[in-house]
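With this grant's support, we have paired protein sequences with backbone structure tokens. One protein thus recorded is set out beneath this paragraph:

_____
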Amino acid sequence: MKESGSTVAFDIKDTEEDKENTVTVSEITTRHLRRLQQSASDYLGKQVTAAVVTIPSDFTDAQKSALTEAAKATNLEILQYISEPVSSLLAYDARPEAVIKDKIVVVADLGSTRSDIAVVASRGGMYTVLATAHDYELGGAQLDQVLIDYAAKEFMKKNKTDPRQNEKSLAKLKAEAEAVKKSLSIGTSAAFSIESLADGNDFSLTVNRTRYELLANKVFGSFTRLIEGAVKKAGLDPLDVGEIILAGGSSHTPKVARNLQSAFPERVTVMAPSTSAAAINPSELASRGAAIQASLIAEFEKEDVEQSTHPAVTVTPHLKRAIGIATVAETINEEVFETLIDAETPIPVRRTVQIPVSKDGDVLVKLCEGVSSIKVTKPEPKANGAKDDDDDEDDDDDDDEEEEMREKIWSIGDVLAEAAVKGAKKGGKVEVQVSIGADLAVQLLVREVGGKGGVRGSLEGSTVASNGA
């Protein structure tokens, strides 16, 4: 690798003549795009002239421009760039059986040489990336290296040569380690089998999944910590997460999903081949999402696509806090918070809810912000006293089960407005409609269902906090 003008170039042998040619990154990118274009054209049976391209969440404008210029050399028009986490999420939400609902989703793209995490808020089918985390040295290659080192040490027990010191031997080890890793993602054991690994000595070794997971325990722990760090960076708690989508080749490894199931609450769905039969192939997620997006915009003119993806349209304000109403819970006879609009919802937005009329026919509605907190319930200590011998045998199991319980609870924050409806019909309902405009102005309408008139009110935009405010 070397500098070539304002870019980077490589000296490679890419012709029939045995000599090196200097090729820039842009030229290599053009070659790659040309091959992809040709493969797609051969598969579809017609020439492909435009595409939707997925990019990492940390891709810069300069990188986008360079990629666009490289695509022009192949006469390939890039209609739209789409973030890889959003593309992966779209692949799941576009399934016929998918139910679109408000949720917080963590998309973990665990590739070969890097890992990218994104925390995405899905609100009414609109996606907002809340936080991202990147590790440019964590990926499947580290898992391969664990197997390479283990195999090399086993080889050295019988032979004096370290196969990692020879380029050809190391190349053989790398190829076999990757194959073993993939086999262990499917089965419980796999075997190294390399002919003439070093000094003419053959090598064979059987590795079971348990041994592999122990050897790579630190790498698997790094995956989990990176994902937990992204959730923390977004200002969220693991209890806020609804789904975790695993993408990238390393997501095929069952241990990655199992660690996440242990680290996050039980209700969090981990979408991976080892945890769900409905999981989409992690290696295809980003490309599937891009294909779906391409099908959605295929009939649009390029100008229409550019207008719909303009920052003025896509970078909209979002609510920083949840908005809801205070209702009286009959079981505890005190006010509780009922969410109408979740935090991180893009605006403008409108929500409507109906609440029952009390016995006296009067209804008081309090529109307020919600404040969330985590309630930790610790297990009660065991009573002192003698135990039966039979109970002693179960002590260890009981200790494992006595873990603290964590749950998210809502409390009433700042009261934004109050409205009352008097003399409503008993057994009837009162409709509460909340509308938040693009300027964060709040409109409140409270009226009896089936009745006329009602109570209206408005709040200035500065009353409600927004992202970046």
About this structure: Residues 66 and 162 are 43 Å apart (CA to CA). The chain has 13 helices and 20 strands.
